[in-house]
Amino acid sequence: MEFRWLLLKVTGIKRILSAQITIDESTAVATLQENDSDRRRGFYATGIGVYVFWNLFTYLGALGASAIGDPAAWGLDAAVPAAFCGLVWPRIKKKREFLITAAAIALALLLTPIAPAGVPIITTVILAVIFGWKK
Amino acid sequence: MTAIWIAVIGSSLTAFLNKYIGHSVPEKWLDRPRFKRINTLVPIVLLSALVGIQTFAQGNKLVIDQRVAGVAVALIALKFKAPFPVVVISAAITSAGIYNLLYRTFKDSSFSFSEESDGSVKWVPSEKIITGIERMPPLISITLSEAEASASTSM
Predict the structure, then answer these.
(1) Distance from CA of B24 to the nearest CA of A (A)
(2) Among the four A16, A51, A78, B101, which has the fewest Cβ within 10 Å?
(3) How far is residue B30's CA from residue B36's CA, in Å, rounded to a whole number?
(4) Buried b vs exposed e over B43-67: b needs ≥16 C-beta within 10 Å?
(5) Domain locations in chain B?
(6) pLDDT value of residue B104
(7) CA A97 to CA A88: how far, in whole Å?
(8) Which chain A residues are closer than 8 Å to B82 by Cβ?
(9) What is the pLDDT of residue B138?
(10) pLDDT digits over B19-73, tens only?
(11) CB contact under 8 A, B144 and A113
(12) What is the pLDDT of residue B95?
């Protein structure tokens, strides 16, 4: 998968609004498009769509999450990592990428007992820098 | 305003500024092969780390429980080029199936796990009937200290 930057070329108030809805999803949809107008359309449709529904369902969750009870009883604790597997899968094409994946999982798990939550995940960016530094 | 609100607003502002600065970076700065290579790898390492943590971590402990089976099924589904919803739902069904099966056995019989002095794990009668949203103990738990280990098996 060739890497492409998200370049919207917007200024002023539009840049402020674009920054607000710059997320994984809108960036992914935009960078997959072939021309500038499709890129814009993809970015705003995804960004605004996710913004609206994310907040709506967060609100609904805050109101009624306790009604669901134990998330594990619904398999939700496995659904989340499964979804992330689906996202990372198409990015692993070569043996080298598989090695990077394995290294990231190993590093995160090694840090889990000793570092505060979140730190094991963000630390793996070091691996991206190390593996990406030289061709 | 409580500390949590300060943290929420502070991190929101930081996240927004981060993204705004991203949109303001001149294009020619970004056109470096090294930047591109690193940025291609960032989502790979972050997503991989997330998968690892969400599959094996329970707080600061590493555990093997129903989630591993769910994720294994997801990987098999991906291997067979299953569509995304199939991957997620098959993982959820597998995990929930195992969890509920064990949970029901656990609850109805009022039994619980006990670790013997020789390290083996067996089911023993428990005074306490598990109710509500209290979680079942994981099948295998790796803990750092003896104190933690005894705390987790005494549930």
Answers:
(1) 8
(2) B101
(3) 8
(4) bbbbbbbbbbbbbbbbeebbbebbb
(5) 62-154
(6) 65
(7) 10
(8) none
(9) 62
(10) 999 888 888 888 888 988 898 899 899 999 999 999 999 888 898 889 999 999 9
(11) yes
(12) 95
What percentage of chain A exceeds 70 in pLDDT? 96
Which of residues B4 and B145 earns the better pLDDT score? B4
Confirm if B87 and B77 have CB atoms less than 8 A apart. yes
| Structure tokens, B32 | 């470096």
Half-sphere exposure of B55 (CA within 13 A, CB side): 24
> Which structure tokens are listed for B101?
């099966």
CB proximity A90 to B under 8 Å: no
Q: How far apart are CA A86 and CA A75, in angstroms?
A: 16
β-pairing, B140-142 with B61-64?
antiparallel
Residue B95's Cβ-count burial label (10 Å; 0-12, 13-18, 19+) is buried
Global model pTM greater than 0.95: no
Candidate from A13-17, A59-63, B40-44, B106-110 with smallest mean pLDDT: B106-110
> Does residue A58 surpass a pLDDT of 80?
yes
ipTM: 0.79
Distance spanning both ends of chain B, measured CA to CA: 37
A133 neighbors B38 (Cβ within 8 angstroms):
yes
Q: Can you tell me which residue has the tokens 């093997």?
A: B64
Residue B144 is given by DSSP the state S
Structural tokens at position B129: 């009937």
Decide if A100 contacts B41 (C-beta within 8 A).
yes
